[in-house]
User: Fold this.
Amino acid sequence: GASLPDVVPHELLSSLGCETNDVDDPNDAVEAFGNEQLASEQQWAPTPDELNRYRDFFVGLDTGGSGSVGLEDAKDIFQGLQLAPHELSQVWRLADADGDGQLHLGGFVAAMALVAKRLNGASLPSTLPSELEPYVRGPSDSEATEGNADSPWHLSTEDLECYRKIFSQLDNGTGVLEAADCKEILESSNLPQEDLSIIWELADTGGNGNLSEGEFVCAMVLAAGRRRNHPLPSELPSELARHLKVL
Assistant:
């Protein structure tokens, strides 16, 4: 699995809400935040910026491009952040809804959200918070994710719901996203501008300069696949075109 250096990277602590400017050892910041008082009400849903960062960590762990990470991969991050073994088990149990030992993107996002709250003093819940359920359980309609699971453009129910959630948080109520709305999240993929332009052209099927929810999902899948070194297609794959109809 992926391994971490002895000192937890500052960018990972930052993504979990742990500021380290005044701490020599980032791991000391984890201990400090772990001693904070639990707020009366927790907001478990990650912010759009956190979603961005968690997705980047997921892609970094999913070195084989399978679309999921196993416990051996993920525990390096969690144990590196000094979660107790029983807490790691509880986070995994909550995030791995189907118990298959793997986390897709949505489950990984939920796990990281739980870890972030724990590191900031919250107690882990005994059941999955309702705010995180859409990431882990996904939609009930199987039609949205039919297709060849071996295809680089296949979309799991967990990833679909995660991308839907990102869209809803970026949408200002118009039901579409302009290029400026998507700029930060697409550029966070660190793909070259040429690839991002191709992804936009493929996803913007109407050629109107904005993305509907279905088109946004297509763009996110294309970006994720390209980051796993799959060449971009010359036209929108059929398994992605389906999402333009079912979303």
About this structure: Strands lie at 69-70, 102-103, 177-178, 210-211. Residues 157-245 form a domain with the Recoverin; domain 1 fold (CATH 1.10.238.10). Residues 1-13, 18-41, 139-146 have pLDDT under 50 and may be disordered. The radius of gyration is 18 Å.
